[in-house]
Amino acid sequence: MGTLTSFIASVEDRAMTVGVLGLGYVGIPLALSISRAGLSVLGFDVVGSRVATLNRGESPIKHIAHADIAGLVAAGFEATDDFSRAAECDALLICVPTPLTEYRDPDLSYIVATMDSIAPHLRAGQLLSLESTTWPGTTSEVLLPYVEAAGLNVGEDFFLVYSPEREDPGNPDFETRTIPKIAGGHTPACLEAATALYGAFVDTVVPVSSTEASEMVKLLENIHRSINIGLVNEMKIVADAMGLDIFEVIDAAKTKPFGFTAYYPGPGIGGHCLPIDPFHLSWKARRYGVHTRFIELAGEVNAAMPQYVFNKTLEALNAAGKCLRGATILALGITYKRDVDDMRESPSVFVMDLFRDWGAEVAYSDPNVPTFGDLSSVTLTPEAVGSYDAVVLLTDHSDVDYVMIRDHAALLVDTRGRFRNDASVVRA
Fold first, then answer.
1. Pairing verdict, β 371-372 and 375-376
2. In Å, what is the CA distance from 317 to each residue of 80, 262, 411, 423?
3. Is the pLDDT of residue 420 over 90?
4. Residue 239: is its pLDDT beyond 80?
5. What's the pLDDT band for 423 if we cut at 50, 70, 90?
């Protein structure tokens, strides 16, 4: 029996072990989906405390229930920081961060470190898939040399794949199984193996012609969002200057049944994807002499939104006869999006830093973040809310009493359109 035939048979018989490398916001949902499909899962992470938490059957992430992790462990899942155990796995799925350097160039150090750890343990018959968002060519230029150095023949006795993650943390309408999975293989045999594997635990697999095409798909998805959010953030500034409610405009525009998709403004963009991923393509495009003007302009607009929120708050304080220096400000919601505990690249942090830099005393309240640096989340009571010179709504979590906030805040600044029709609230 050939290697490809044997690999597919082991998927169909649920007789294989899948290794998930990186047990974070992508890796844990992926492990859950794989396990629920009847495949054995071995998880890898360099953070010992996270490994211990998972092995106790507890979730380290707010929107993933402890019961889900307990069920995962009961089904045979194990987490480890021993990367030599990669040899036990028939498939290895890499889900590690791909941030930017201080010069906004791609930082592949997590991918390289992962490959350094597993390279001595690669063997014939395995599939290796990269799921981290990155520039087109990463799989063939960075991962392939490791496989070839191990003496393995890609497409014959080893399968190399790129299949980008498409997680949306905190979105109750989608899960890993129901989100179509893009897959590109280094060879046709690699794609066939990937389709079989992912098809075992994802409802729909969407094959593309190469790993490079698959890498570009992911970048297009996130760049599309980044540019449209940049557009609507700029439209918010224009509408505000004209005395118009941008949320009213968006809600009316989205009644058009074709040609328009609603995006909503805020204090900026955050998370591990939108502030970072577009610049992977910008960096790669420069190698081809191409200047990605739309991408970089959207990045500039979105990065400027914390300053816009700061300026609007400063104007409102001045109008109320308050000086910013020495003013007390409560940041309401500091994660990058609603109902998650993810602080990565959160624009709320940049807003808070601006207030501090100008001498304000800054506190925060967020039900999903008990502590942040040397601060602890403020319990929201009428007395607490009323004690601050300004409350700035940055992330509109669901489990907050906004009526109470409005009724007791001395000054309320809203960046999310929660108080659209209230003339007493400052829109920012």
1. antiparallel
2. 52, 32, 8, 16
3. no
4. yes
5. confident
Contact 322, 330 (CB under 8 A): no
Q: Is 37 left (phi over 0), alpha (psi -120 to 50) or beta?
A: alpha
- pLDDT surpasses 70 at 54: yes
Q: How far apart are CA 119 and CA 142, in angstroms?
A: 12
At how many degrees (to 10) do helices 211-241 and 277-287 cross? 120
Measured distance CA(127)–CA(89) in Å, rounded: 9
pLDDT at 170 exceeding the cut of 90? no
User: What is the C-alpha separation between 199 and 43, in angstroms, rounded?
Assistant: 20
The yes-or-no verdict on residue 30 having pLDDT over 90 is: yes
List the structure tokens of 250: 């968006």
Where along the chain do its domains lie? Answer: 3-209, 246-427
For residue 1, name the pLDDT band (cuts at 50, 70, 90).
low
HEC readout, 131-200: CCCCCCCHHHHHHHHHHHHCCCCECCCEEEEECCCCCCCCCCCCCHHHCCEEEEECCHHHHHHHHHHHHC
Contact 181, 202 (CB under 8 A): yes
The reported pLDDT for the residue numbered 268 is: 93
Polymer length of the chain = 428
Distance (Å, rounded) from C-alpha 193 to C-alpha 208?
Answer: 13
Share of the chain above pLDDT 90, in %: 92
pLDDT at residue 271 in the model: 81
Residues taking part in catalysis: 273
- Answer yes or no: is pLDDT of 65 > 80: yes
Q: 289: burial class by Cβ within 10 Å (0-12, 13-18, 19+)?
A: exposed
Q: Answer for the pair 417, 395: CB distance below 8 angstroms, yes or no.
A: no
- Tell me how far apart the alpha carbons of residues 306 and 277 are, in angstroms, rounded to a whole number: 20
For range 404-421, the mean pLDDT: 95
CATH code that applies to domain 3-209: 3.40.50.720
Same fold, 3-209 and 246-427: yes
Among 352, 177, 350, 347, CA closest to 274: 347
Q: How far apart are CA 57 and CA 72, in angstroms?
A: 8
Residues 246-427, CATH architecture: 3-Layer(aba) Sandwich (3.40)
3-state secondary structure of 291: coil
Give the residue carrying structure tokens 């859950």: 32
- The tokens for 168 are 């949306």
pLDDT at 272 over 80: no
At 120-136, the pLDDT tens digits run 999 999 999 999 999 99
